[in-house]
Specification:
Low-confidence stretches: none
Shape: globular
Structural class: alpha+beta
Number of helices: 13
Radius of gyration: 23 Å
Helix content: 25-40%
Number of strands: 21
Distance between the termini: 22 Å
Strand content: 15-25%
Amino acid sequence: MRIKPFKGIRPPKQLVEQVSSRPYDVLNSEEARKEAAGNPKSLYHIIKPEINFEPMLDEHDPRVYDAAVEQFKRFKAEGWLVQDPEDRYYVYAQTILADNPLSGGKEKTQYGLVVGAWVDDYLEGRIKKHELTRRDKEEDRMKHVRVLNANMEPVFFAYPHREDLDAIVTRVCAGKPEYDFVAAPEGFRHTFWVVDDKATIEHITKIFAEIPAMYIADGHHRSAAAAGVGAEKQKATGDKEAEFNFFLAVCFPDNQLNIIDYNRVVKDLNGLSSEAFLAKIAEDFEIEDKGTEIYKPQRLHNFSLYLDGRWYSLTAKAGRYNDQDPIGVLDVTISSNLILDKILGIKDLRSDKRIDFVGGIRGLGELKRRVDSGEMKVALALYPVTMQQIIDIADSGNIMPPKTTWFEPKLRSGLVIHELS
């Protein structure tokens, strides 16, 4: 993999909590408007600039993109964002605190290297994806990158872990961090170090050159948009060494990442009674009634079903899936084929209005709430996919079914920005 250091644009340390934000795509415009209220330094004014207009204005209106440019200029003029004088790498640590339900009672930290990733590695398939992207979402982010001439938000990559990189990161993190704070509202700790030692920078670059592939964990649309703009500039100029040939990425070792469940709720039973529905499920699954206490899936091919105030354990019977097929062995495939499609008649997860999806960050109590409220009839919880499953699918050139992976914590935006010129 080809990477490079870059002159990051960052907030002064005393402003980082005011400037930094959640990623643009994890909240809607109204939520961003509320989070940024009373804070002119919030990055939302740049990455979701529609918050500065009346709510009825289309967020894709040209005036919205123009406003992003003006806000970016203002942030730099006011000293809320300042460019580092030399090319640097950065180390970004995310910590799930012990009191967070995701932690299992034990603090957990993952350490990423912030780098400029090479556009050609994406275009030529060495940066591998496991999800499809929508062209309209790509184009929105491409417009954003074009008008700002910058990658405002990083993408989230995984690489096959290496002990030599771990050793470098450990050494860097022994020093005093540039930033160290717990972000509201999600409550994760974000810690950030600057790597300015030239020998260390060269060593990191050299090690990454030996890594054959990286994997997009989160940020498929941002990756496609960033690489797309870089390719446009490359084609227009013929220059393959300029800064626009690289885009902002945080690269984590694959053995540190935290993937959580991504669950389903459905509005009806496709005309079946609850008894008939469970009888049909029993054709392909071993069913155990777990009562009224929340039941969480315990392993791959074990599912949790909530119906009529009761929780059930479903375990797929042998022969109902193909262990040799990287897609067919996924629990999202098994549940889609044997329950959502076969019994409930849901053929297209992307477009069917009878189904909705709930990230595991909300807990299984959210599934119970939505069913008990009468909004939904049944909920299905899945065991999280593994990083190795993602790698196997990406390496085989396959694409995961929709709504399969949920990485947590999300990257904090605004800790560092990469300008393309």
